[in-house]
Amino acid sequence: MLGYIICFTLTIFLTFLAQKSNSKKQFVFFSILIILIPSIFAGIRSINVGSDVVGYLKGDLNKALWYNDFGKLIKYANEEVGFLGLIYLTTRFTENIHVLMFIIELIIMFYFYRFICAKKDKLSMTLLMTIYMFMCYS
After folding, report:
1. CA distance 39 to 44
2. Which of 60, 111, 121, 123 is deepest in the core (most CB within 10 A)?
3. Is 0.90 surpassed by the pTM of this model?
């Protein structure tokens, strides 16, 4: 629980700092940290937390490791092709499920952060990040 609190607090605080920064260099620095902190946290968390990892991710990872042909994987696995492609590509480099969880969260955070940056003139980036963090992780 403490890990979640630290992750939330740091990410939300850094989002606030990024929103208030006057320098492009500072904004980019804070932005990288905002994307990396939840991604690293997702990568180091236990695979027993939540039902998503044990429910499908671990099974899909094992299938991707089993099949050397992506065509066979999409034929026999019951997931979206893009998601399976990401898993398959990851398994060509590592068998570690934590690396896969990191990569998935990195992609999610990258695109969510791009979204809130695009809305920063109309909506508070800090508020959007706070809502996202509590909706996705509580």
Report:
1. 9
2. 60
3. no
